[in-house]
Write the structure tokens for this entry.
Amino acid sequence: MGEFEELVLTMVGILKDEAYGNSIVIEIKTQLDRKVNLSGVHVTLYRLEDKGLVKSYMGGATNERGGRRKRYFELTSAGIKALQSIQEQRLKLWKLVPQLKFTR
Amino acid sequence: MPQPPKTVSNLLSRLCPDYLWESIAGDLEEQFMADNQELGLGAARRRYVWNALLFIRPGILLRNKLKINNTIMITNYLKTAGRNMAKRKLFTFINAFGLSVAIAFCILIYLFVKDEQSFDKFHSNAKDIYRVEEYAWRTFQTESKDPYMQSAYLQLALAPTLKEELSEVKFATRFNGGWSQVVKYQNKIFIEDIAFADNDFFKMFSFPVLEGNSELFFLEPKQAVVTKSIAKKYFGEESPLNKTIAIDIRGEQDYDIIGVMDDPPTNSSFDFDILIPQENRLYYERNMVNWSSFNSPTFVQLHEGSSEQQLLTSLIDVRDRYMKENMERDKEEYDIPEDAIQFEYRTSNLLDIHLNPDVNWHKVSDPQYSLILGGLAILIIVIASINYISLALTTSASRRLEVGVRKSIGATQKQLIYQFSFESVALAILSMAFGVIIMILFLPTFNDFTGKGIRLDSGVWLELLGFSLAISLLVGLLAGCYPAFYLSAFKPSTVLKGGARKVKPGLAKPLVLVQFMFSSALIVSALVMYEQMNYVTTKDLGFDKEQILVVPTQYGWTDESNAAVAQMRNALQSNPDIIDVGGVSSSFNRGWSRYGYTINEENKAAYVWAVDPHYIPAIGIEIVEGRNFDLTNASDSAALIVNEALVADMGWENPLQEHLNWREDSIGPGYKVIGVAKDYHFVSLHRNIEPMFLSMNKNDAGHLTTMLIKMRPRDISQTISEIEATYKELLQDKPFEYTFLDEDVDSQYASFEQWMKIMSLSTLFAILISGLGLFGLAGINAVNRTKEIGIRKVFGAPLLNIFVMLNKQFIWMAAIAFVIAAPLGAYIINEWWLSDFEFKIELGWKVFALTFIAGLLVTIITVTYHGFRAAQLNPAETLKYE
């Protein structure tokens, strides 16, 4: 899994019931101060869906966006497992790094 | 409420899979609203467009799934298309053949244009390299209407001066190519194409250096760099480095080979076999300080970041510094108008020089050629497409039932349009395969016609395939469009009831008329070109060009050359097969010199040839007054034989009493005129016969470089080998080369003959394709009218009557097309091609009559088969179902 895929997957986890294309873009911007393009997020979400890590469903009609429905994404159990294993690997590797301390 | 721009989202909604579109559009709009609040409407709209455009990417587009039922239909379409093609083999053949030829033609022309555009692109510094040019007021009269001349030949000292004095110039070189000189290594003696260049040449241009260090090239004058093929020719597998060859530039001298380069590719503006330093040119020292002699093409490379404009500004300073006095003197002498540009340097980027015909260069081309060829290609494509359309329309009868059945089962018109377009595209792609084969077969002929050396390298294939696919798709869609709409519009109710079977030809007739018109115009043009070429090659030129061998002495511009001519004549006089041997400074189509001089304050100019007394009898020039030169008469060395045009120009009543002071001798009266030659065409028929004279004076008029050997028309090859034996014996270390005078003269029209051939080829293609189309149309016409013919026959109409009735309309169409298109074709060819000739044929009734007969003949031949077949059918057969 690529870095960006991992990021988007994490965001889907963070946003829970409110995860759709635009909200992920905004969340990445507020949390990480990183600008990403909407089309990139969409393509990544569809790819994650192909891989079975997220699943999508259409929300109800809205007023703000010309009445168009949102496509919400949520983690599948495979997606949750993937996120967990990534975190564990990170932690394991982090422990192997010998004493990173600030030196004065 | 502010609205996002619609265009991009409309486009996106079409490309994007339906099931994703709603959420994507929603997200985009949401972003737009947020941007609108934050950044304002303008920025929001720009962002919206940009964000929407970014959605057009494979990750989205590839999610479009072909709908299952569509693929099923495609197999069905393919099947029906195949069955239809198989059922009507003749029409399929006509269509496929026409399209193949058209596609082949298009690919060839694509290759031509591509080759033209690719000139000099392989130099990595090309964008910084400029050729400096001269733009100046003409100081002697010519036939050109333009009072200014443009030339690439500049002062010898210019290149070194520019390099030294201008900060923006990084490198500068002179390049004089096209010198055919004798090259000798041990027992190998050949004539090679020598070019003079400078050290910077190797730094500026990207010709790969295979051996030697290009940094060190041409630091000494007696060095040479040879091409790979020359290295192979003289030294075989041995390395040529540090070997010494002898090159004869006004006397033989030794040159050390210090490098080997790749042969220049065919799309290079520079051509050479051997490069040697500029210092070896004749009168080098003298010309280095002479700023009024123009003899060296000059190229500079600018430092990166320097502009052409900067260079032009500096060039004005250079001109003012070095040419001021000369210009002031010339201005007075030639009465150059005050407001005229007397002289200025101009520049062209290296990439532009190939397609700039205003400045002469030995490989220069005209962008017009690409345009004309492209026009021809489009013409042929249109003719082939018309075939497809008219045949599809007229054979639609057999497709009516199919359309009816499909519609009643539930096919929409859209689907039917899709089906018929699919069929035509399938046929076009099939034709493409044949087209590519035809193209490969014709490429050598095409290369021959256009004088190009196009090869199909592996790299070019992908591009070619892409191009031919694009052309096929375009033609398939364009040609398939109209029939598709026409066919799909049938109403099932009328079709299936079995109503009128007759097909309305609709657009078919006018389209065939257009075809006829194109063909007539092409036939007229080809005929005019053919007649003109026939005229120039058979016209009496005022001298005898048959059985004359042109043999250069290979001594160049020297006294030895004069002696060689005399020696050869003495030796050959005893040979009964040789009538005479004449010497001349330059043979026909081998260059000329023209002198300008002032007589009675009037500027005059005349062509000058140095000859010996045998020249005039050898080539049969007629002397109308006076006598030929005579060696025993000492004063003849200062005598002239002039042509009638010169007599007329000078306004002489009694030319034999006159002198011509062409050397502007301030003491004597000048050269005495001892004879007047009847006007003969010493230059090509593109030009008028202008004043000219012949002289025997070696110092003033020049040396004899070439002998013209008049032979008896017996066994020519035997005679030539005898001449060669004599030559080898007398002039031992010179290569024997010869050409025939008549071929030399004819080759003046080579480029025009080229165009004639291209035109004939296109005409042939056009006639072939439109003939095939007509053949198909006539067949359908006959089938449509079988019942009518049957009834007529029952009432006793004779065969001929029916035949005429069937074909009358086609004859009419041919006639109408001829009346419209033939004059147009004649006009165009007259303006574009014929106008280059000073001596040309008159466009008479003969050309038009021939075109008409040819058009009519093609028409009658193509329609006859069907006409007779239909007329001969037994009415009992055709009417039995009624």
Remarks:
- The interface with chain B takes residues 20-22, 25, 37-40, 42-43, 46-47, 58, 62, 64-66, 68-71 of chain A (CB under 8 Å).
